[in-house]
Write a structure and sequence with these properties.
Strand content: 15-25%
Number of strands: 3
Radius of gyration: 15 Å
Order of helices and strands: HEHHEE
Helix content: 40-55%
Structural class: alpha+beta
Largest sheet: 3 strands, antiparallel
Length: 85
């Protein structure tokens, strides 16, 4: 039976904590294997994002990868008082 979105969210968040990762990337093909599914409905993505948000992890869907990233400023861009120049 395929893993639920909530169980997958817990699994990803635990993996990130256990391995002290701020970011985890997966190719789409590897993500489908991790999900134990061949197709995913939009409701699964929504439930996964909500489950990850409980652990302050963001879910980003790219063209070639999916990204899981901690929701904090771990790699600031330049000066903290960015002026836009």
């Amino acid at each position: 039976m395929p893993i639920s979105a909530e169980a997958l969210a817990d699994q990803i968040a635990q993996h990130m904590r256990r391995h002290n990762r701020d970011v985890v990337t997966l190719r789409w093909s590897d993500f489908y294997v991790l999900c134990e599914r061949e197709r995913l409905k939009s409701g699964f993505y929504t439930a996964l994002a909500k489950g990850l948000a409980k652990s302050s992890v963001l879910f980003v869907q790219g063209t070639s990868t999916v990204v899981f990233v901690k929701d904090f400023d771990f790699a600031p861009y330049g000066d903290r008082h960015f002026s836009g120049k």
